[in-house]
From TrEMBL:
Family under the similarity heading: Belongs to the peptidase U62 family.
Annotated organism of origin: Sphingomonas floccifaciens
Coiled coil regions, renumbered to chain: none
Domain Metalloprotease TldD/E C-terminal: 232-446
Chain ranges of the Metalloprotease TldD/E N-terminal domain: 26-90
Domain of life per record: Bacteria
Name of this chain's protein: TldD/PmbA family protein
Amino acid sequence: MLTTSQATDAAHRIVERARAAGADAADALFVADASTAVHVRDGALEDVGRSESAELGLRLFVGKRSASVSTSDLSDDALDTLVERAVAMAKLAPEDPWAGLAPAERLLHGTPPDLDLDDGGDPAPDVLKTRALAVEEGARAAAAAGKSDGASASASRVVIGLATSHGFAGGYTLSSYGQSATMLAGPAGAMERDYASHSARHQSQLEAAEATGRLAGERATARVGSGRIAGGAMPVVFDRRLSGGLLGSLLGAIAGPAIARRTSFLLDAMGTRIFPAGITVVDDPHRPRGLRSRPFDGEGLPVSPTEIVTDGMLETWLLDSASARQLGLEPTGHATRGVGSGPGVGSTNLYMAAGHIPRDTLIGEIDRGVLVIETIGHGINGVTGDYSMGAAGFLIENGEITRPVSEFTIAGNLKAMFAAITPANDLEFRGSVNAPTLRIDGMTVASA
């Protein structure tokens, strides 16, 4: 695999070509990756996949007009042609008064922070096969009457280089490891499916393969015999395997482009209380070995931990340079970048801080409600905040989780839902967006 210096040099060279071809400004992103994945089923190897790729993305400006292009052909002739076409495209594009690179004075200078994101590993396929088989064995042991729907183990490494025409050049490498299993349980014709997975930056961080499999088997077994639920207004408890999805809705509502377009249900919420007192939401790009940690953002700006919500109060929008200019504000270091497109806005390691109530107490206070472990569909209106999702989970009666239920919907409005959230104290950092178990009283539950 290439080094970070080689990746950064590749990005820098195409930026120089763009300037020589008539671009007023440009930035480029180079990404190379190599990954291996092994899939097993019923104790036998099902598939082994290996992929390697390298892509270069260029964004250039001619005045206030811009174009973005990408290629996997890194030959000199192909890059010359790519630059010529990009300049021609930009000259035909409409003007954008907010377009441009990030402010030069805000760029990251000096040595980027070392976040320990790459362990340098490249496990052989037989090592991954052994791990995948162990994951599946754990799942089958936990669901003795069940059937495996497969297990997998994977590993990858990525090198990233970013360069701009106004003074930034930097890069970093990432390693990533994952394992998962899916199980079916129950009688023929009424089987239930569930899964479990775990990902980490370092191989040594992965939980025991059998633990991931066991969780998949236990989850599938617990769903056997799922029935219907009578609807009504009641508390809904979001299991922490999906409670982070509510933070995803928050993220979309406070992203700079949505605010600039005036298409957010939180448009006028800056500086106001959107969650109950005591709730804190943090975005932390500097988390060591974090799944979304990074030393700089997609425009070359420095990044730092940000309290998005403090004591229930909304403290900031998430801004790239374009949306910041449109709003008359400063970029916040939340620009994201894909190889084939210009910057957007996104979070890194986003989480809601743990509350003070144990999960059992949170559930034990409910006379009748539902614990949701799965949501289905995309029923969120980012403009109004209206929320309606298909769901599956467990009925709560007299403070106890009693039986599995499915084919129901949960509905509300995100403003009211945020204001009614009670977090448990069981936060676990398992993904890139994390939240503890969350209870929201007064949601509408209806049988599908």
